[in-house]
User: Which sequence fits this backbone?
């Protein structure tokens, strides 16, 4: 549905600043009907990437195809027509303070020159879809952040787009509201079949709704794959660092303060275990303890699901010796458990 | 105070209102679009025309930095061209308008620049044309600021209109100078000042009420 082909964007040098490369040779293919997440820190280029999809950014080289249409090759008026097929929602909602919820949702239809008699039922159906029928005549100032984003989503869907772009749509919201907005996006994706491309700096967002994820750093797409694979077996340090914020992956703070990189002067080692697939329910820890005769302490743990597939994370401590000869890690690898050394404590 | 004097004050008040209303209206018709253009024609903006923008900016500044009384005298030939005469109340409308238009332009420009840039981006993402963005987004969103700015304009027009007596324009200022000052009639001067004070108060309250009504950023009880 969206094809990004060796896309680069360089902001030329000005009198005040040097040239900045926001995107370097990025290739992405977003499939029809999927939710694709792009994760990266601020300045990684994800915002530039998203804006290239609806032509708000002109690529320096490469191209973007949306449903087969080369966005960069369109005339101004063709681009406007194409943008009606691509909805967009924003971190700060970007609602007009001078218009009610109803009139905000009607705005893109007014831009498109749609007849008032057609606008009315469509806007009312959309407000109903996002659960805001009772806020129809409220101005944005009278709405909560979550309600404003619902208006934003209804507005983005008004012209019945095939693609929805989400620019950090939940970053200004509290965790509970974030979950409800993500659930709404997932529902829209499922019921209307709208392809969604979202950018975020939170792995929890990707984990909750996306089917695939791309990790960006310094304008490059450095890792890509199914969300399950990237979350359970990240290949880059950047991807791993985003996982750090997920529940159950954090080292308890008291322990983190005492953590040392080298085993010298310490007795135990901390490792993080990742359980995936069918073996995630096997009694691996008790076998590890019994068969290798090790004292194992569980310090932190979480079992979660991504798209209905379970995965577990455990932080455990082992005697240093079991790591030094590699026996524990060999044993765990046999059970398909991913291991990551975290450090040592006295 | 004699009925004669009261009639004079009433006539002068009507003259003042006439000059302010007509110059305010024409000034808005010229200055409004000019302000919209100034706010949207910078580099990379909706109607990008940086050179024209800069030239218009200089013209606007030049007009605004000329003291009103000098502007009145300096443009007498132009006034004669437009109004057929350079003397009288109607003729005074020409310099009043020329002083008001750039003032309004700057006010409209400032109000529009206050509108969140994210709204322009969102509108473009919805497929809006630049004209639609001005008409349906920028102007409605800037309306509270524009309303307050126009109130300010009317107040400064009231002040300027008191100076056009110098070219034979009528109105309250002219009455105050000729009767109150030159004929030593302090009661007329007091009356003129009183009427002006009431007018300014009235305009200010009306403007603030209107601005509050169009401002949807305020929570209503």
Assistant:
């Amino acid at each position: 549905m969206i094809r990004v082909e060796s896309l680069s964007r360089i902001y030329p040098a000005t009198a005040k600043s040097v040239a900045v490369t926001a995107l370097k040779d990025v290739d992405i293919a977003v499939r029809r009907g999927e939710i694709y997440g792009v994760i990266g820190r601020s300045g990684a280029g994800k915002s530039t990437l998203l804006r290239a999809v609806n032509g708000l950014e002109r690529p320096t080289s490469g191209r973007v195809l949306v449903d087969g249409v080369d966005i960069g090759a369109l005339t101004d008026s063709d681009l406007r027509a194409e943008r009606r097929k691509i909805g967009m929602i924003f971190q700060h909602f970007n609602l007009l303070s001078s218009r009610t919820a109803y009139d905000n949702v009607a705005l893109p239809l007014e831009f498109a020159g749609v007849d008032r008699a057609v606008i009315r039922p469509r806007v009312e159906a959309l407000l109903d879809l996002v659960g805001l029928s009772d806020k129809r005549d409220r101005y944005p100032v009278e709405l909560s952040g979550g309600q404003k984003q619902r208006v934003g989503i209804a507005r983005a869907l008004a012209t019945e787009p095939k693609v929805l772009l989400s620019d950090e749509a939940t970053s200004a919201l509290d965790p509970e509201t974030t979950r409800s907005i993500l659930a709404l996006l997932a529902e829209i994706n499922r019921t209307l079949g709208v392809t969604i491309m979202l950018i975020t700096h939170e792995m929890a967002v990707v984990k909750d709704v996306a089917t695939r994820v791309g990790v960006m750093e310094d304008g490059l797409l450095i890792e890509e794959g199914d969300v399950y694979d990237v979350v359970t077996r990240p290949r880059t340090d950047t991807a791993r660092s985003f996982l750090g914020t997920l529940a159950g992956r954090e080292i308890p703070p008291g322990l983190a303060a005492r953590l040392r990189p080298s085993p010298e002067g310490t007795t135990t080692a901390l490792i993080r275990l990742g359980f995936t697939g069918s073996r995630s329910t096997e009694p691996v820890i008790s076998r590890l303890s019994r068969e290798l005769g090790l004292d194992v302490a569980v310090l932190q743990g979480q079992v979660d699901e991504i798209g209905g597939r379970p995965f577990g994370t455990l932080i455990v401590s082992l005697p240093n010796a079991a790591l030094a000869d590699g026996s524990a890690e060999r044993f765990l690898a046999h059970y398909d458990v991913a291991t990551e050394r975290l450090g040592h404590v006295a | 105070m004699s009925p004669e004097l009261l009639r004079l004050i009433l006539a002068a008040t009507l003259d003042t209102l006439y000059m302010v209303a007509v110059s305010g209206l024409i000034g808005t018709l010229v200055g409004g679009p000019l302000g919209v253009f100034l706010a949207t024609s910078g580099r990379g903006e909706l109607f990008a025309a940086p050179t024209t923008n800069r030239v218009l900016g200089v013209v606007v500044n030049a007009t605004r930095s000329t003291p009103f009384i000098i502007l009145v005298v300096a443009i007498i030939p132009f006034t004669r061209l437009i109004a057929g005469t350079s003397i009288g109340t109607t003729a005074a409308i020409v310099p009043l308008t020329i002083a008001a238009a750039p003032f309004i332009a700057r006010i409209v420009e400032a109000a529009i620049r206050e509108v969140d840039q994210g709204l322009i981006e969102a509108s473009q993402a919805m497929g809006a044309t630049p004209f639609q963005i001005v008409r349906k987004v920028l102007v409605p969103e800037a309306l509270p600021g524009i309303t307050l700015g126009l109130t300010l304009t009317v107040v400064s027009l009231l002040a300027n209109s008191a100076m056009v007596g110098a070219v034979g324009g009528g109105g309250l200022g002219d009455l105050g100078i000729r009767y109150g000052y030159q004929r030593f009639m302090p009661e007329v001067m007091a009356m003129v000042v009183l009427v002006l004070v009431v007018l300014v108060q009235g305009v200010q309250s009306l403007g603030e009420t209107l601005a509050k009504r169009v401002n949807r950023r305020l929570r209503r009880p």
About this structure: The first strand of chain A starts at residue 2 and ends at 11. The CA atoms of residues 40 and 216 of chain A lie 5 Å apart. Chain A has two domains: 2-243, 253-345.
